[in-house]
Amino acid sequence: MKVCIDPNAGVCTGVRRAIRLAEENLESGGEIYALGELIHNRREVERLAGLGLKTIEREQLTGSNAVPAKNILVRTHGIPPQQQDELQRGSMNVIDATCPVVKRLQKKVSEQHLAGCQIVIFGKEHHPEVSGLLGYCDNKAVLIQDEKDFQKIDRKRKTFLLSQTTMPQPAFLALAEKLKAIVKTLEIHDSTCKQINDRYEDIKAFSAQVNVVLFVGGKNSSNSKALYQACKSVNDNSYHVESAEDIDFSWFSQNDIVGVSGGASTPEWQLAKIKNYLESTALKGSSYNN
């Protein structure tokens, strides 16, 4: 068995910045609380927890049993402005790890809402990024995932269409094209993340060159799910794993070339760990499928 890591894999700029902020603030010795899961990657969150990062939910900051948190780390997905104000009124030190791309999008949503536009978001209900964006337009946006949701749109109003940053660009553009035909005044803002968009063709090319793909990433991550499907579209022997414990050696043949890749929230150390595990276990002898 030969194992190779996708040269284009690794965390995006926003995730790398969030991890760096967490590590730097933990090194200073203070207690740091992430408001919600910092990134959608359970294994990296566990690593940061080992360094001292604590994860809490908003509800844990209020009431008689409130956590006495002084340093709050805002997750990469961002939070609504109302929550930001609450934290600051509570005299908390807010460390904002919101992805800069999401931060700019929040500002854009606020501007368009104040200008009187109907805000339409292509995204997933209850996704933390979407929840944050809704706060910038008084929770009055229309959320769509497919054409069935078009009925919720006021077609006569001036409309501003955007996307959750981690949604697939082709799906967004396809919906935008269909909306052009039915919405009288429509401004389309392609807010899908360029770094993630560029990964689709790269990961397809990588997947086509190997016998088996192990895609490493959080199973609750939107971009990981989409990138895994891109792998699967060109290589049916693609498997989505979060750690070495998920690997089944019946997936492989002894002479396979195995490619290891990952999502925008999958650090390089996880890819290297999977590669090392495959190589060391293969040397010991494993139950291949032939």
Spans with pLDDT under 50 lasting ≥5 residues? none
Q: What proportion of the residues is helical, as a percent range?
A: 25-40%
CATH superfamily of the largest domain: 4-hydroxy-3-methylbut-2-enyl diphosphate reductase, catalytic domain
Number of strands: 12
Task: Identify the CATH class of the largest domain.
Answer: Alpha Beta
Largest sheet: 4 strands, parallel
Strand content range: 15-25%
The secondary-structure element order is EHEHEEHEHEHEEHEHEHEEH
If strands are numbered along the chain, what order do they take across the biggest sheet?
1-12-10-11
Architecture (CATH level 2) name of the largest domain? 3-Layer(aba) Sandwich
Query: What structural category arises from helix and sheet content?
Result: alpha/beta
Instruction: Tell me the overall shape.
Output: flat
The total domain count is: 3
Any descriptors?
alpha/beta; 39% helix; 290 residues; Cobalt-precorrin-4 Transmethylase, domain 1; Rossmann fold; 3 domains
